[in-house]
């Protein structure tokens, strides 16, 4: 199972809301809901998040058994 907790922590550190991230990256509300529920999102979405936040993939997602 994958978790987006690192992304949520990163947003807190940057004093940014999920809505601000959604608007800045152009992701849909349904994609943001999937992230909130730790559901699958496309690699393109993860790429746009990493590009916008200037971070690595491991800064936004982690694997949990």
Give the arrangement of secondary structure elements.
Elements: E1 2-3, H1 5-13, H2 18-25, H3 29-36, H4 43-53, E2 62-63
Antiparallel strand pairs: 1-2
Q: Which keywords apply here?
A:
65 residues; mainly alpha; 434 Repressor (Amino-terminal Domain); two-stranded antiparallel sheet; 4 helices
Overview of the structural elements:
The protein is mainly alpha-helical and 65 residues long. It has one domain (2-63): Orthogonal Bundle (434 Repressor (Amino-terminal Domain)), CATH 1.10.260.40. 55% of the residues lie in helices and 6% in strands. The protein has helices at 5-13, 18-25, 29-36, 43-53; strands at 2-3, 62-63. It has a two-stranded antiparallel sheet. The longest helix has 11 residues, at 43-53. 11% of the residues are buried. The model has no long low-confidence stretch (mean pLDDT 96).
Entry summary:
The protein has 65 residues and is mainly alpha-helical. The chain contains four helices and two strands; from the N terminus they run E-H-H-H-H-E.
**Mean pLDDT across all amino acids:** 96
Main sheet overview: 2 strands, antiparallel
CATH fold category name: 434 Repressor (Amino-terminal Domain)
The CATH homologous superfamily name equals lambda repressor-like DNA-binding domains
Regions with little confidence, pLDDT below 50 for 5+ residues: none
How many individual β-strands?
2
Estimate nothing, just give the exact number of structural domains. Answer: 1
Sheet/helix structural class: mainly alpha
Encode the helix/strand succession as letters.
EHHHHE
Percent helix, as a range, is 55-70%
Q: What is the overall number of helices?
A: 4
Beta-strand portion reads: 5-15%
What strand line-up does the widest sheet have? Answer: 1-2
Spatial gap, N to C terminus: 6 Å
Broad shape: globular
CATH class call: Mainly Alpha
User: What is the CATH architecture annotation?
Assistant: Orthogonal Bundle
Give me the Rg, rounded: 11 Å
